Each structure stands twice: as C-alpha cells, then as structure tokens.
Amino acid sequence: MTVASWVWFVTIAGFVAIIAFDFWLVSRNPRDPSMRESTLWVSFYVCLAVLFGLGVLALAGPRHGGEFFAGWITEYSLSVDNLFIFVLIMASFAVPRQYRQKVLLVGIALALVMRGIFIALGAEAISRFDWVFYLFGAFLVFTAWKLVTQQESEDQEFSENAVLRAVRKVVPTSSSYHGAALTARVDGRRVVTPMLIVMVAIGTTDLLFAVDSIPAIFGLTQEPYLVFTANAFALMGLRQLFFLIGGLLDRLVYLSKGLAFILAFIGVKLILEALHLQGVSWAPEVPILVSLGVIVGALAITTVASLRKSRRDATTRPPARERADAR
C-alpha cells in the first residue's frame, strides 16, 4: 500500500483540526456532557471511522479495508478497557467534574502524539528485522495469559508511572487546583497545578497501554498508515465514550477475558504468518476476514455474557434493607 506524502499531511491535518475544534468546544463551556450529547458525539466519531474505512475499501481494495476495520475495532475495544484506568486516575487526583472533559482531551492528544512515534518505531523495526514478528506474537500471548490469570477480586489501584514521578520531582507542583489553569503563582513562585499532572498521567498511562495495543494491530496489518489511522480513530471519541459508558464499565465483567482471547489469537496469528513467510509449509496465512470475524465475535460474546451475568447478579442480590438488617 503506497501512501503519498500529501495524503499523510491531509490526514494528520484533519485529525489536528478535529481535536482543535473539540478543544474549543470544551474550553468555552467546561462541564460534564449529557448522555444525549455524548451519544451523538460517539456516534459521529464511529460514523467517521466507518466512512474512512469504506474509503480505504474503495480506493485500496478489500484486503486493506478489512485490515483497517479489524485494527480499528481491536484498538477501540482495548481503549474501552483503558477507561477503567482513566476512571481511577480521575478519582485519584480528585479532578473537578467540570474540568474532566479538558483533562481527557489533552491527555488523549498527548497519547496520540506519543503513539505516532511508537508506531513509526515499530514499523521501522518490522521492516528491518523479521524476528520482531515472533517477539510481538510471544508478547501478546504472554499478555493474554496475564489477563486470564489475574485475580478478579483484586482491587484496582492507580500507581504513578516513572514519567509522572519524574515530573513531580523536577517540577514544583501545587497541592490544589486553580480552576482550569495548568500553572499558578503560589508564594511568589510559579508552580504547575494538579490539572497538568493529571493530563500527563492520562497521556503516559495510555502510552503504557500502547505497549499491548500497537503489537496487536501490527499483527493485523503492517501498513503504518492504517496502523496510525486506526489508533487515531480509536482515541478520537474516547472522551465522550468516558461519559457515555462510565456507569456501564462495572457491568462488563468479562471484557478482560474477551480481550485476552483477541490478543492471544493475534499473537498466534503473528507467529504463524512469520513462519509462513519463511517457507514453513504447515503454517497457514490467516485471512483478514477470518481475523475480523474472530474479533467481532469475541467482543459480541463477551458483551452479551457480561450483561447477562450483571443482570443475574442484580436479581439475586438482596434488597438494600435486607442487607442492612443482615449487618
């Protein structure tokens, strides 16, 4: 797939324009968006991604179109899982409700820039070293195993990563928010506010998640343009999705298991295709339509099973008064 430089420029400029417009909307009216507003925006971004995928399908053929859709759906489902951590970060930093949109938007913009760098490095590594396929495949299988074996009863906690700890040590930080300002003057000294710190937290935490998601999408397509656009579309509507399904996250109890299956499938697919390219006769090349069907099927089964279990648990749980009497 040959992508001209001007196509890259127009694509990146389009994403920047959308983010800038989104930021303008958030800045002029900071608040928690309504359910209707969030639904409309999420629908807009989903339709935008679908239209882009149909364009790839028409201009580059069914193979590349299928690769985009498989990559976008995989990245989008992994991004939904990231929302669990975003909720923890917001709670940990006690972000005022009216500023959550701005924090998410800037954090996601930082994540998109860093993912772009990560994708460029990954594409260069794949073009130079065949063994990277085996490394990515083994890493995805290992990640899937960790997701399956982790204890569901463990309380999730947000722990600061190395970048965030370095920022706190190097840059003087205030202990309280000063509206939506990123810096403030306290006792005659310029300091950064928790608003900037939480933005860095979301951006760098998302980059840590990209350690899983970038190898996963490279298992579906090795086209840097498709990898970048699939990641960008997966991140674009994440802010509105945070407010839309925030209450639904706790009900998706099997999401991690479904994602584990998808990551394991893509990991095995990467290893098999690497063997196939090296002439191993028994190693098949998995068609992209099969990959797309497995990904969509796994997510559908996971969602339905999660919602049914949540409904069952709700019906078997004793009423609040009975639980209080039992205590």
Quick structural overview:
The chain has 327 residues and is mostly helical. The chain has helices spanning 5-28, 35-60, 62-92, 100-128, 131-149, 162-170, 194-218, 224-236, 238-244, 255-277, 288-316, 320-326; strands at 183-186, 189-192.
Write up this protein.
The longest helix has 31 residues, at 62-92. The chain is an all-alpha fold. 74% of the residues lie in helices and 2% in strands. The protein has one domain (5-314). Strand 1 and strand 2 (189-192) form a beta hairpin. The radius of gyration is 21 Å and the shape is globular. A two-stranded antiparallel ribbon has the order 1-2. It contains twelve helices and two strands.
